[in-house]
Amino acid sequence: MKSYTYISNRTKIRIGYFDYKIYGFLSTDIVDVANLHIKNQTFAEVAYVSDVNNFNLYVNIFDRKFDGILGLSYSNISVGGITSVFDNMIEQELVSSRIFSFYIHRNTSVKFGGKLTFGGSDPAYYVGGFTYVPVTKKGYWQFTLESIYIKDLILCEKSCQAIIGSSTWQIMGPEKDILHINELIGINTQGRVDCNRIFGLPTISFNLGGRTFNLTAKDYIIRYPYDESICITVFWKYNPLYDIDEVKWVLGTPFMGRYYTEFDMEKDRLGFALAEKNFIK
């Protein structure tokens, strides 16, 4: 059914993300998200996605239809100065606070893929309290990562800048560091690991906000849904974007799948709490 409120802007766009690029055009309409009706929302309609760094693998792994981009970063980095969906929610008084939170289900075989909460957090999906870290640069959700440990290897030893977001299925870092991690994991040249070895693989620890956040192999090894004999690593080298060259690490859905994440634009901070174990299977 065609929308009678649809406005075609006829403006072509190109947006570069961490491991892929999208091409399309801008349009404006009423956008419905979680029973909220956002008026006069300009958005990007995706016509083509470049296959950079196995983006097709990302789509196939999570078995999702890919139609557009819902940006939830700060509006100052939006293409063409477009006001983001979340900022429009605030301006139109559809939510009570400038906070949104993600729970992401790692089991792709279940219908419940996760929950995005606007206006706060949902305590049903996390355990204990949040550990908060300040946003170090508004734009992407950038913060300070204090260090990373895997066995006797210490990475990001004197701290480094990182970004977290749901737009990538990977954890990305400097090529040398990623090579060290994947060597310790024992992957082959195709980025695969023997699925029978998963329970014997090391824990990888991320230190931030004065606390340690552990990922086990169940978090950082993905079993391909159409052939469960294929297991791949989520650790990939990071090619910095032109405007965030100081960022060294990108924590994607593997980290968010283990740790419920709160994005707080009121206090410019990120909150992390252990995801409720009853939902992680």
Per-chain topology:
Elements: E1 7-16, E2 21-33, E3 36-49, H1 55-62, E4 68-69, H2 85-91, E5 99-104, E6 114-118, E7 126-134, E8 142-145, E9 147-150, E10 153-155, E11 160-164, E12 171-173, H3 175-185, E13 192-193, E14 204-208, E15 211-215, H4 217-220, E16 221-223, E17 231-233, E18 235-237, E19 247-251, H5 253-258, E20 259-264, E21 269-275
Parallel strand pairs: 11-19, 12-18
Antiparallel strand pairs: 1-2, 2-3, 3-4, 5-6, 5-20, 7-21, 8-11, 9-10, 9-14, 12-19, 13-17, 14-15, 16-17, 20-21
What does this structure look like?
The chain is mostly beta strands and 281 residues long. Helices cover 13% and strands 42% of the residues. It has 5 helices and 21 strands. It has helices at 55-62, 85-91, 175-185, 217-220, 253-258; strands at residues 7-16, 21-33, 36-49, 68-69, 99-104, 114-118, 126-134, 142-145, 147-150, 153-155, 160-164, 171-173, 192-193, 204-208, 211-215, 221-223, 231-233, 235-237, 247-251, 259-264, 269-275. The chain has a 5-stranded antiparallel sheet. A 5-stranded mixed sheet has the order 8-11-19-12-18. Strands 1-2-3-4 form a 4-stranded antiparallel sheet, with helices on one face. It is globular, with a radius of gyration of 19 Å. Residues 55-64 have low confidence and may be disordered.
